[in-house]
Specification:
Rossmann fold, alpha/beta, 7 strands, about 210 residues
Length: about 210
């Protein structure tokens, strides 16, 4: 099962470095033999991701709602474009039979997708690696906020194993290999008990990076 779901943005206005990282991610994944599953868009980081993978002979599958096709937002050179009825079905289909999720920097749509998959992982519904690519330090404040959620005892310290943060696309393959195992019984500690929910004294590295082995 070598299908990876990538969440990314369609903004053309962001810094070019974000698009360059998306293109590089597409190249890295395709050269490693992964099929890229993404939102099917033609511009911004979406378009760059797809073009990067396709440019080195990779397989790219887009999943897009019909209304976005009608607006001519769809990439027209993909291996396959799956059209769905709505955004809810899009998210479900993008995750289907994937071995990991990667989030590139993005806005409300990307963040909504990321938090949904973290919620599914917290409940043990999705147990595969979730990586955040921290281009330009984009996710620093988000990871600090998640640490704040733990300190305020809305999440369990073990939940930090749900995601890994890497500085760029070239660290993705190592991070996938080293991602912490997520247990089948994750739902057993989804509700934070009083005993487990004491503030964590140890300092956290932000962002978390895979160790060198």
């Amino acid at each position: 099962m070598k299908r990876i779901c990538v969440y990314c943005a369609s903004s053309r206005s962001c810094d070019q470095e974000y698009h360059d990282a998306a293109r590089r991610l597409g190249e890295v994944l395709a050269r490693a033999g992964y099929t890229v599953i993404f939102g099917g868009g033609a511009v911004g980081s979406m378009g760059a991701l797809a073009d990067g993978a396709l440019g080195v002979g990779g397989e790219v599958i887009g999943v897009i709602p019909h209304f976005m096709v009608d607006l001519e937002w769809a990439h027209d050179s993909l291996t396959r474009l799956d059209r769905v009825e709505d955004m809810r079905l899009r998210k479900h289909k993008m995750l289907e039979d994937t071995c990991a999720v990667i989030a590139l920097p993005g806005g409300s749509g990307t963040l909504e997708e990321l938090f949904e998959v973290l919620t599914l992982k917290r409940l043990g519904v999705y147990r595969n690696p979730v990586l955040l690519i921290n281009t330009r330090g984009y996710f620093d404040k988000l990871v600090k906020f998640l640490a704040h959620c733990i300190d305020e005892r809305f999440m369990n310290p073990r939940h930090t194993d749900m995601w890994s943060v890497v500085p760029g696309p070239d660290q993705v393959l190592a991070a996938l290999a080293e991602a912490p195992h997520w247990p089948e019984n994750a739902v057993d500690f989804a509700a934070v008990s009083e005993e487990e929910s004491q503030p964590v004294e140890a300092e956290r590295d932000c962002p978390k990076k895979p160790s060198n082995k």
